[in-house]
Write a structure and sequence with these properties.
This protein is an alpha+beta fold. 62% of the residues lie in helices and 9% in strands.
Amino acid sequence: FIALPGIEASENSLRDCLRSLKNDLDRAIQAKTQAEKSLSDSWADEGKPGVDYLSWAKDRAKGNETALKTSAAHAKELIDGLEKAQNAVDSLGDSIKGRIDAEGKFQKAEQAIKDLDKAGQESELVDLLTAAEIYIPKSSRQDECPLCERDGIRLADLLKRIAVRLSEMKRTILLKKELDAAKKALDSAVTVAAKNWTALVESVRALASALRESKLSEAADLKLDWPQFPNVTASAAPGITDEIVREAQKFQIAAKAGLNPIKKKHETDTKALNQLRMIQRAVAAVEDNTKKVLDLDKRSKRAEAILAVIEAHRKEFVSKILDDISKEVGDLCEKIHPGEGIKIQFFLKPNTKGSLESLSEFEGVSGVPPQAYYSESHLDTIGVCIFLALAKRFGGENTIIVLDDVVTSVDAPHMERFINMLMEEAAHFSHLIAATHYRPWLERFRHARGPSANVQLIHLAPWSLARGVRAAEAKLAAQELKDAAAALPFDRQAAASKAGIFLESILDQLALLYGCKVARKPEPVYTLGELLDCFDKKLKALLKCEIPVEGGPSKAALIGPMLDGLAAFTWIRNQVGAHWNPAGFDIPDADVLKFAQKTVELSDSLICAKCGSLPTKNKTGTHWQCRCTGESCLKMTPLESPEN
């Protein structure tokens, strides 16, 4: 009932906002702290110059980043040029050594061939036989020499002979292959050496140009004698000769002395550049996060204050409702448990979302949980009272209340008061629907023990999936009796039985109101005759009802004569409506009908036509009245029996 989804959604959004602001604040504080630590450490490494680390850092952050970046890049360019020239010299040396080795191997292979070749012809013969071995299989004639065209020469025999001769010259063939391989290796080594000459000269020329144009003091400190290197520094590059290569090698040797100083310069500039960038980032982070911390702290405190206001207003609103409900619940419980002093206090549980706590009073001790001390029936009825109080508070006159077997643990007196409370509270709602298996509820209303005129009784018969829910209106006892008396054909047994039972119910209520004397029994169940006899003459002489008449004076109805008239017919109930009795067969229908009609006459005089209840309420101390209010109620006098 007490649900505030819009307020709670807004409150949760504000709570999320506050959480987000605090998280951002924590991150800003952490970023600021880290930046300050970086600056403090760098300041300490520098010997803590100046007033403090932040003023030192701000001054250092003004350094020329572009100059450092340019200097470091130029130093890296010179380092790359020096290393490239050194690599070119190393490569050229390796290639020259390789060429010399290849020349030696070639000369050795060539001399071996010369030493083995007889008159300089054996190597040529090997070449000839090898070519013939390839050419002869391609000849179209198999009995003629493909060289001299001589007949009678079998090609197969010729090929065999060539193979035999080649096998006899294996040493020559092997030396021939080695000579060919040595020649290829020599040609490759010459090519590689030529390329490395070119690479050396080009790298040295590029290095010389960079060093000559360099503004670095480390380059000037080399004190290179530029006139000694005319070919290296010439604007138009001449062809590569041995002289130029030697000049390039000489220049590389003179220039490589600057490699370590230039490397140190590059490291110094790079370190200074990285430190400058770090300081600039850290100073910016300190300044930015200082602003963020101030802003976020201010905003989070504002959000916290707003949230506190909203929470306080919501809790105040809900607490006011709970206070009102607590009083209403106490009033309703008092109607069911009069004089027991049941008091319930509802309140919100601090720092817990969607909570509801309850405390009660027990034997003069307050602040105890009702679940610990109250009985099951008390808790059941308190639960219904809470439900009704909330529904009345929020529902309004168009609300429909549905109670489904809500109370089964109370005894008869409490159930009577519980039903009376529900009847009183029903006026605050459009409808109050009570579904129950408790039969006394139904019979109470059927026999006018409550305001049956404002109650619709619906009987639900056994149901099934095939037949569905079956409902029928349950008739009041008075209406059932009237229908039985008017039915055609006349059911005498039904009329006699219904009249007797209904009359017993009315007389039992009157006897209770006036405290009439009946014989004591183990079970307080009395016959119709015993109930009629309990009304003494003095009481019957005074019993009277004032029946309100719309637009006119009330009508008086004397109850005593009606009781005397009914006494003459009570035997009909037993003879006709209660037992198998052949003697009852002789009783005419007219007497049975008269018994029913007199019972109806008595019920019409005692039951209010407007509210449908018997006069059982003592509100004035002078008479009994029905549940109607004002002067339009049915009144019954006297309030007490003269015998009492």
